[in-house]
Design a protein that fits this description.
The structure holds two protein chains of two kinds. Chain A contains three helices and no strands. By secondary structure, chain A is mostly helical. Chain A has one domain. Chain B is globular and about 65 Å long. The chains are: A mainly alpha, B mainly alpha.
Chain lengths: 69, 366
């Protein structure tokens, strides 16, 4: 599973990075790298069985609690 | 440098709005909290949605050819403007993930129970990312075909269900307490009608910008009437069951049985969800990446489509614990959560722009 993930993310990086370097779009490259790294880290966490907090459930429960619904 | 070169017509905008409104509403009926009076809640929600659309289109009328990100920078200044823009982008991103969650939870429960959730999500996201990469024009042209097909299916489903309808199921009218009805109607406004606030990222690319507001209202009205028809049909066919089922449209379509030949037509509802979900997710992904590109002054939004799409899929996989939590959030949490984004940001921006007499002619001319 982890190997598959790394291959997938590797393909995404290979389709974008060479073009960005060739055009010298450094700002785009940084943005891409930050988002790509976030995606990779979170995906690895999920594939390793780490449970991420359910954001919508937390938001929903906080709001309904706050407004007494 | 212009991030989007494409232009869409006002007619295409109307159709895109219709596809966006159908989105996941084809399975999660709006106004469901009002029981058999859901059609009234839906009609009231449509009116609230039209009012909100009037607010955000007034903003785009004032700042022609500008997205909400550019408008925020002009109205609030660079730093506060970008902060508010990031909040708005979060809303688009989160909404996209919620639609993906609706999609995958429905398919896991009813259509493909043995297929891993990630597979369905990644396939849909790849199609959406590919479309967004080709620009708003391609998405608008695609929506013309898909929305026409879906309206045809919704009308055909309704006609085939006529023999199973019992309009006594709609009686007594206004049976629910007024507070509950108003809450359900606000719920119907926030999901799906006022969600069209996402078009603040698209309205700048309508070729005749003065026709944009009318096109938004037209799209909302047509989609609203079709949704009211679907909600009324569901209540008439299912009766009291409509209040306890998660997916009333899907359940109603299961009832269709014409001479033992035309049966199991609920798969059409699943097709509706795939196609309209695709339009809604694509518009939200487009808004998110275009917004990020404008906030960070990028040359193009295309390089960040795939990583943002992947993050949307991750959020869709993790943002709720189970289907009941998803429906609970949709019915109770979302109507409150959405207010700052759907009403707050457009209304306050419009008021501040009026007070500051923006856009100014001369130095600050937009």
């Amino acid at each position: 599973m982890i190997a598959l993930l790394l291959i997938g993310f590797g393909i995404v990086a290979l389709t974008q990075i060479p073009g960005l370097v060739r055009k010298q779009w450094w700002r785009e490259l940084i943005c891409f790298a930050v988002l790509w790294s976030m995606g990779l880290i979170l995906s690895l966490m999920i594939s390793m069985g780490i449970t991420l907090p359910p954001i919508s459930t937390i938001i929903g429960k906080s709001l309904t609690g706050m407004f007494g619904i | 440098m212009l991030l989007e070169q494409g232009k869409i017509s006002d007619f295409q905008l109307s159709v895109l709005i219709m596809g966006f409104v159908f989105g996941s509403s084809v399975i999660i009926s709006p106004g469901q909290g009002a029981g058999h009076d859901a059609w009234i809640a839906c009609a009231l929600g449509l009116m609230e949605g039209l009012l909100i659309a009037w607010i955000f289109t007034a903003l785009t009328k004032q700042f022609k050819d500008k997205t909400i990100i550019e408008i925020n920078s002009l109205v609030y200044g660079k730093i506060l403007g970008k902060f508010i823009s990031v909040l708005f982008i979060w809303y688009l991103f989160h909404l996209g993930a919620l639609v993906l969650t609706n999609y995958v939870r429905f398919f896991k429960l009813g259509v493909y129970p043995a297929t891993p959730k990630t597979v369905g999500l990644l396939i849909l996201m790849l199609v959406c990312a590919s479309t967004v990469g080709r620009g708003i024009e391609v998405l608008a042209r695609l929506s013309l075909i898909l929305v026409a097909l879906i309206i045809l299916v919704a009308v055909a489903d309704t006609l085939l269900l006529i023999p199973h309808m019992d309009f006594n199921n709609l009686l007594p009218i206004l049976d629910v307490p007024i507070g509950k009805l108003l809450w359900a109607s606000h719920g119907a406004a926030s999901f799906p009608f006022a969600e069209t606030v996402a078009f603040l990222m698209v309205l700048a690319f309508v070729d005749k910008s003065e026709k944009g507001p009318a096109a938004v209202s037209r799209g909302l009205l047509i989609a609203g009437f079709i949704l009211i028809m679907v909600v009324t049909r569901n209540a008439a066919v299912l009766g009291p069951i409509v209040t306890i089922t998660n997916y009333p449209t899907y359940l109603a379509a299961q009832v269709i049985d014409i001479g033992d030949i035309l049966t199991r037509l609920e798969v059409l509802v699943a097709i509706n969800l795939i196609t309209m979900g695709f339009i809604k997710i694509s518009v939200l992904l487009y808004g998110t990446v275009l917004g990020l590109a404008q906030v960070f002054n990028l040359h193009s939004y295309r390089p960040i489509i795939l990583p943002v799409g992947i993050l949307m899929v991750i959020l869709a996989l993790t943002n709720v614990g189970n289907t009941l939590e998803m429906l609970d959030f949709a019915n109770k949490g979302f109507p409150i959560y959405a207010v700052p984004f759907q009403i707050g940001i457009p209304l306050i921006t419009l008021v501040v722009a009026k007070l500051r007499k923006l856009p100014q002619t001369g130095g600050d001319k937009v």
